Amino acid sequence: MKKGKLFAFTAAAAMTVCLMPQSVSAAGQTSADVSVIGQNKTAADNYCNKQDNKESPYDSSYWIQPTKWMSDPISPDDYEGNVRLWFDKFTLSASEAKSLISGNKTVPVKFHVKGAAKKASVLAFHVIYDTRLTPVNQGSSKNSKMKAGYAIEGKFSSLETQIDNGCISWASSAADDILYDGVIFSMEFRLPDNAKAGDLYPIGIRYDYDGITSDLFYNSRQDYEGKQMMTYVFNKGIENGYIKIEGGGLGDANSDGNIDAIDASRILAMYAKFSTTGGGSPTTHDYEVCDVNRNGNIDAVDASKVLAYYAFMGGGGTGTFEEYLKKK
Q1: 246 neighbors 92 (Cβ within 8 angstroms)
Q2: Which domains does the chain possess?
Q3: Core-most of 41, 56, 211, 277, by most CB within 10 Å?
Q4: What is the Cα 113 distance to its own chain's centre?
Q5: Rounded Cα gap, residues 226 and 214, in angstroms
């Protein structure tokens, strides 16, 4: 096996089997070593899958320094560089989300790197995400969820394995330290059919080490500087992302998923505020949600339409607010 050629990945029993080439493994194993990444992990370790519509910051507590480094504990503060890796934080309006769902379209999310140009040759991550999202296959492989970006495209060999719903193991390597700054890979996610305003779907990284092999961000020399860089990355260098559906839909001024008297009250309060000198101006989102009759103003007429719909639904009416307005 030639140096720098990606270790062979195969999926077996929902586990990732990694055959590491000599002089590539962060844990120090040679090409004769065969180990399993993720075999002791379960879906419970997917901290991005709480489904509480809150951000899930990167959790560095999973970090364990590989024992085969044969060194004293390395502090992330010892690294003098500033490598940063991050997922996009993608915000949609409620109407945009609805349009994507009805059109069976996806949301693109990219994983970026900065500050690591010409410093790394081996990358390996466990990507975790909210299982309400559905990652879509990309490229020529029917099982590929990641599409190589500028930082590695044409220079690295990459393979991935779906470990369980919500967790994908991805790895990539090159013969030399030829990583560029830019997008490492991109993913496409389909929103759930019941997605609504206020929903937030986290996407991130979970460091994994099984005692033999580990996730990686390493240089080709496997020297102390590479160990410092990897320690820094998996402790301080990663930022998780999300797909977020902003605010409420039309008429839902408080974004609680209901259209009622509270929303009408908020629209009236907004009207009073913006009608006062020094009260500021409505945002694009304010107009999208509160300008019910789409006349370019937020006023008492909009509030009255919300109240009328609330009364209609309370009397046994059916249908969305938009459908109700079309009939009036």
Answers
A1: yes
A2: 8-246 (2.60.40.680), 261-327 (no CATH)
A3: 56
A4: 14
A5: 14
DSSP 68: G
pLDDT at residue 24, rounded to an integer: 37
pLDDT tens, residue by residue, 80-135: 999 999 999 999 877 788 889 999 999 999 999 999 999 999 999 999 999 999 99
Residue type, 236: K
- Nearest 10 degrees: Cα torsion 285, 288, 289, 290: 100
Which pLDDT value is given to residue 320?
A: 86
Neighbours of 184 (CB within 10 A): 26
Name the phi and psi angles at 19, rounded to 5.
-100, 100
CB-based contact 128:206 (threshold 8 Å): yes
37: β partners: 16
Model pLDDT, residue 197: 79
DSSP one-letter string for 217-284 = EE-TT--HHHHHHHHHHHHHSEE-EEEEEES-STT-TT-SS--SHHHHHHHHHHHHHHTSTT-----H
Q: What's the rounded mean pLDDT across residues 247-254? A: 83
Cβ atoms of 97 and 107 within 8 Å: the answer is: no
Q: Is the separation of the CB atoms in 254 and 247 below 8 Å?
A: no
Is 203 in contact with 191 (CB distance < 8 Å)? no
Tell me how far apart the alpha carbons of residues 19 and 321 are, in angstroms, rounded to a whole number.
57
Measured CA to CA, the distance from residue 296 to residue 293 in angstroms comes to 8
d(CA 253, CA 25): 53
The pLDDT assigned to 139 comes to 65
**Predicted confidence (pLDDT) per residue in 28-79, tens digit:** 333 222 233 333 444 448 999 999 999 999 999 999 999 989 989 999 999 9
